[in-house]
TrEMBL record:
<dbReference type="InterPro" id="IPR050625">
    <property type="entry name" value="ParA/MinD_ATPase"/>
</dbReference>
<dbReference type="GO" id="GO:0005524">
    <property type="term" value="F:ATP binding"/>
</dbReference>
<dbReference type="GO" id="GO:0005829">
    <property type="term" value="C:cytosol"/>
</dbReference>
<dbReference type="InterPro" id="IPR033875">
    <property type="entry name" value="FlhG"/>
</dbReference>
<keyword id="KW-0067">ATP-binding</keyword>
<dbReference type="Pfam" id="PF13614">
    <property type="entry name" value="AAA_31"/>
</dbReference>
<protein>
    <submittedName>
        <fullName>Cobyrinic acid a,c-diamide synthase</fullName>
    </submittedName>
</protein>
<feature type="domain" description="AAA">
    <location>
        <begin position="27"/>
        <end position="187"/>
    </location>
</feature>
<dbReference type="GO" id="GO:0016887">
    <property type="term" value="F:ATP hydrolysis activity"/>
</dbReference>
<dbReference type="InterPro" id="IPR025501">
    <property type="entry name" value="MinD_FleN"/>
</dbReference>
<dbReference type="InterPro" id="IPR025669">
    <property type="entry name" value="AAA_dom"/>
</dbReference>
<dbReference type="GO" id="GO:0009898">
    <property type="term" value="C:cytoplasmic side of plasma membrane"/>
</dbReference>
<keyword id="KW-0547">Nucleotide-binding</keyword>
<dbReference type="GO" id="GO:0051782">
    <property type="term" value="P:negative regulation of cell division"/>
</dbReference>
<dbReference type="InterPro" id="IPR027417">
    <property type="entry name" value="P-loop_NTPase"/>
</dbReference>
Length: 292
C-alpha cells in the first residue's frame, strides 16, 4: 500500500462520514514536558503507534517549533511540511506523510512560525484543509516543544487535554510541576495526565508521581491524573539509533509493553470523554490561532 492509496482511503472515510451524518470529533491531545531530554517526542510517537495498533485512527502533528524531530525518530524524510501548505504549494493530501505502520503525520518545520501571523483568509484556508483529513480521526496528537513557551501554552489551553511527560530526575520533576502550575493558574479548566518516563522500577515511578500530585493537591487544589510509567530500557536508545520506533523494533521490550499498558488504560478511561469534543479540529484551530 503506497502513500497515495492510504490517503485516498482517509479521504474516502471522510466522505463516508459526512454522508452518514456522523458528528463525532477527534479528541485532541497536546503532549508537553517541563524540560527537554525526558523522551517526550519518543513517547508521543510510540503512543500514537500503539493506539493505531489497537484499532484507533491517529494523526500525529509535529508542533515543536524550530526543533521538530519526529521524522528523524521515524527515519523518514518528508518532502513537504506545513510551510508548503500555508504557501499554497501543496494540498493537505501531499502535506500528510505516512510513517511506520502507515501512521499519518504532519511535519511542522518552518511553517509552524508562519501559523501565528496568518491573515483571516489564510487561517480559514488552513482550517478547511486540515479538517478534510482530521475529522476522520479518533485522536490527534500534537507533540509540542519542551518547556512552556507562548506557543506551547496556546496548544495546551486549546486542546481537550494535556499529557505531561517527566522523568524521576529532580529538575524534570520541578519543571513539570512548574508548567502545570503556570497553566492551571491562568486556565484551571485544563485537564492533565502525567506520564513518568525512564523509571528504574514501579516504586521510583510512583514516588515521582506522588511528589507532583501531592504538591499540586496541596498548593493548587488540583487533581492530576497519573496515567502510568515507562521503564528505563536500553532498547529505546537502540531504536533511536536505528531510527525505528521502539514499539516496532522491540515489541517485547519493557518500554513497549509499558506503552501498550498506558494506551490500554487511556482508552479504558477515555470512554467517558469519547463524545466530549464536539467542535473538532476547527474549534481547536479557532481557539489556538484566532487572535481574539
Amino acid at each position: 500500500m503506497d502513500q497515495a492509496q492510504s490517503l485516498r482511503e482517509l479521504a474516502a472515510g471522510q466522505n463516508r462520514k459526512l454522508s452518514e451524518g456522523k458528528t463525532d470529533s477527534a479528541r485532541i491531545i497536546t503532549v508537553c514536558s517541563g524540560k527537554g531530554g525526558v523522551g517526550k517526542s519518543n513517547f508521543t510517537l510510540n503512543f500514537a503507534l500503539t493506539l493505531k495498533s489497537l484499532g484507533k485512527k491517529v494523526l500525529l502533528f509535529d508542533a515543536d517549533i524550530g526543533m521538530a524531530n519526529l521524522d528523524v525518530l521515524m527515519g523518514v524524510s518528508p518532502k513537504y511540511n506545513l510551510y508548503h501548505l500555508l504557501g499554497r504549494e501543496a494540498p493537505i493530501e501531499e502535506i500528510i506523510q505516512l510513517g511506520p505502520d502507515h501512521l499519518p503525520f504532519i511535519a511542522g518545520g518552518s511553517g509552524m512560525e508562519e501559523l501565528f501571523s496568518l491573515s483571516d483568509r489564510d487561517l480559514d484556508y488552513f482550517s478547511s484543509q486540515i479538517s478534510d483529513i482530521a475529522d476522520e480521526m479518533d485522536y490527534i496528537l500534537f507533540d509540542t516543544g519542551a518547556g512552556l513557551s507562548k506557543e506551547t501554552m496556546k496548544f495546551i489551553v486549546s486542546a481537550d487535554e494535556c499529557f505531561v511527560v517527566t522523568t524521576p530526575e529532580p529538575t524534570a520533576i520541578t519543571d513539570a510541576y512548574a508548567l502545570m502550575k503556570v497553566v492551571h493558574n491562568s486556565h484551571p479548566q485544563v485537564e492533565f495526565r502525567l506520564i513518568v518516563n525512564q523509571a528504574s522500577d514501579i516504586r521510583e515511578a510512583n514516588a515521582t508521581s506522588d511528589k507532583i500530585r501531592m504538591a499540586a493537591k496541596r498548593f493548587l487544589q488540583m487533581d492530576i491524573n497519573y496515567l502510568g510509567y515507562i521503564s528505563s530500557d536500553v532498547h529505546v536508545v537502540q531504536a533511536v539509533k536505528k531510527q525505528v520506533p521502539f514499539s516496532m523494533a522491540y515489541p517485547q521490550s519493557a518500554a513497549s509493553k509499558d506503552v501498550h499498558r498506558l494506551a490500554m488504560k487511556y482508552l479504558s478511561s477515555d470512554r467517558s470523554y469519547a463524545s466530549s469534543s464536539t467542535e473538532g479540529i476547527k474549534g481547536f484551530i479557532s481557539r489556538w490561532l484566532r487572535r481574539k
